[in-house]
Design brief:
Chain lengths: 350, 250
């Protein structure tokens, strides 16, 4: 295999999932993520895997629940309106502590919205998305290479912490083509003694369940889950800092917004403005540390987002409101231009 | 000499079902079939949301509790993960024929190689007796206090008849458990539904016309009579589809 292959972001996710050992994919057509399903439909039968187009997003996530219960790596993908439908199943996956991967290639909302890129599901994904107290591990790629790498990472983390992982991309990331190196290592799935694979008459029955009617017990389960989340926060938080050491102005941006912002930071530096970028790679757990640190030396943080200002709340919390945090955004499927971000940097520097 | 024993596949624990409820009978039939076929070790059961939500505590095989109506989709996942396993769902009428109708129809259309045990007692039991998709015309429930009015909320859904139109469905039979002969026939049907799966024939659904004395507001005995007099004319017993025999009831 050549070192690098030219792929769409959506295809990179699919091929990386296969490399990660995922042999079961369930999905439902929705733009702009349908290439994931189309790719899986072609590849899975050739490698002894299962591709199944479900009757709905709800059915797809519940098929995922079934395969996850059986202890195998499994995924579904969708785009914003479809993720809302999956919300029920994602909550059940969390309640039953099942590892799985959900990919959201976001489009503009609310409602049917549009089919162009968006980051307006930030709240939905970082806060869990469904009912109840829980989180998903949320990974935000900003290149096709990361679409692949973070897909593998998502499977590994899901297994390690018995959680659902989400790769939170957007229409641009899904549709754009870049060279990708798919030769990476994958940690094999751990043993899953809790899986419902049949007792073989050798052990007590396993039960996969999220029902707990005794409040004292349900409270304990919730607390234990959040103790596990603390480990995730401690061990797995990921971010990239770009030219932050001496920065006076910090940009906070993830995904496609971070790529646009990087260009703006370079241009600002050429003009003698000390701008830098903090790019969260895990949106949950959110990387508090770089923002706390930035707040000691920057005079403003600009949150660049494809929504009406969602991550900005986490940036304010992480920087403890010690410096002003402003929003630079486009919505409805629009993407901020490097010039728009540069203007915001210039304005902040004055 | 032991002439009768509790089936091994049914755990020796107290069931939470109301006195006179037929869930216990159907649980026992399913467990006996699992024992007789020697499949407990490779069987995975899917419990629904509804009265049988805690079935996972009663069956000795591995069990999964699914979201409301989603058991056939979960079963699809489990079966596709390892087709050598035996997978059954156990669902009530609200779960299977209302909120989960899409999952039911499509699992049948795909001829998913699973076994579905469908409890039709014409009411939502667990939530205290609301109108079900299978509630009879005129039936008084908490949410049809003046009787089910077809002008307002339509007619009961006949699941076996509906699914029998699908090319995919392998085996559909409606049984009841209101008398000893009926219980024996129900067991035979349940056994066939599991045998079909073992033989790789595909989607088999056994609809069990059942009673709910508590929410029907009857004694257990009167509830069994009500099955005979009111339920069975609306829900005639019989095989609605047996693809292997080319049989479709019209």
């Amino acid at each position: 295999m050549a070192d690098k292959v030219l792929m769409k972001g959506n295809e990179a996710i699919a091929e990386a999932a296969i490399k990660a050992g995922c042999r079961h994919y369930f999905g439902y057509p929705i733009t702009p993520q349908t290439e994931v399903a189309a790719y899986m439909a072609k590849r899975m039968p050739k490698i002894g895997g299962t591709f199944l187009q479900a009757e709905s997003e709800i059915a797809a996530i519940n098929m995922v629940y079934g395969v996850a219960s059986a202890g195998l790596r499994v995924m579904t993908s969708s785009s914003s309106p479809g993720i809302s439908l999956k919300g029920e199943g994602i909550s059940y996956l969390a309640g039953a502590d099942l590892p799985a991967l959900v990919v959201n290639v976001q489009r503009g909302g609310p409602g049917l919205g549009g089919i162009q890129p968006s980051q307006s599901d930030y709240f939905q994904s970082t806060r869990g998305g469904g009912h109840g107290d829980y989180h998903m591990i949320v990974l935000a790629p900003s290149s096709v290479q990361e679409m692949a790498e973070l897909t593998v990472k998502a499977f590994e983390l899901a297994d390690k912490y018995r959680m659902t992982s989400m790769v939170l991309a957007d229409g641009t990331m899904g549709q754009m083509m870049e060279p990708v190196d798919l030769n990476f290592d994958v940690a094999p799935a751990p043993e899953k003694p809790w899986a419902t694979t049949g007792t073989e008459m050798k052990r007590k029955h396993n039960i996969v369940n999220s029902l707990s009617l005794v409040p004292e017990e349900l409270e304990k389960l919730n607390i234990a889950r959040f103790e596990r989340y603390e480990l995730v926060k401690k061990n797995e938080t990921m971010y990239e800092e770009y030219m932050m050491d001496d920065a006076d102005i910090a940009i906070a941006a993830f995904g496609i917004a971070a790529r646009v912002s990087k260009n703006a930071v370079n241009e600002a530096r050429k003009r003698g403005i000390k701008a830098g970028l903090i790019r969260p790679i895990t949106l949950w757990p959110f990387p508090d540390a770089p923002f706390k640190k930035a707040a000691t030396h920057v005079k403003q943080i600009i949150s660049v987002e494809l929504n009406m200002g969602q991550m900005i709340e986490d940036v304010r919390l992480a920087s403890e409101c010690k410096v002003p945090v402003t929003l630079c955004n486009r919505v409805g499927g629009m993407i901020p231009s490097p010039e728009q971000v540069l203007d915001a940097i210039v304005k902040a520097s004055k | 000499m032991i002439v009768y024993d509790k089936p091994h596949a049914l755990l020796d624990v107290p069931l939470h079902y109301c006195p006179g409820c037929t869930h216990g009978i159907v649980h026992k039939l399913v467990a006996e079939v699992i024992d007789e076929l020697g499949i407990e070790g490779k069987t995975i059961g899917i419990a629904p949301v509804g009265c049988s939500v805690m079935a996972y505590d009663y069956f000795a095989c591995d069990m999964i509790e699914a979201a409301h109506g989603r058991a056939p989709a979960v079963a699809t996942g489990v079966k596709r993960a390892d087709p050598s396993k035996i997978v059954f769902t156990y669902q009530g009428d609200g779960d299977l024929a209302s909120i989960g109708m899409a999952e039911t129809v499509h699992a049948a259309a795909r001829n998913e190689n699973i076994t579905v045990i469908f409890i039709n007692n014409a009411i939502y039991g667990m939530t205290g007796g609301q109108m079900a998709p299978t509630s009879l015309v005129g039936q008084v429930t908490q949410t049809s206090p003046y009787g089910r009015d077809p002008k307002l909320c339509g007619y009961p859904i006949k699941v076996c008849e509906l699914l029998s139109e699908l090319e995919g469905a392998e085996y559909l039979e409606r049984v009841t458990v209101n008398s000893i002969p009926h219980i024996r026939a129900a067991k035979k049907a349940i056994k066939k539904a599991f045998m079909n799966q073992i033989e790789g024939k595909g989607f088999s659904l056994i609809e069990v016309v059942s009673s709910c004395p508590t929410n029907w507001g009857m004694t257990p005995q009167n509830a069994l009579k009500w099955i005979e007099e009111k339920m069975l004319p609306q829900y005639p017993l019989g095989v609605y589809k047996d693809r292997s025999n080319g049989e479709v009831k019209k």
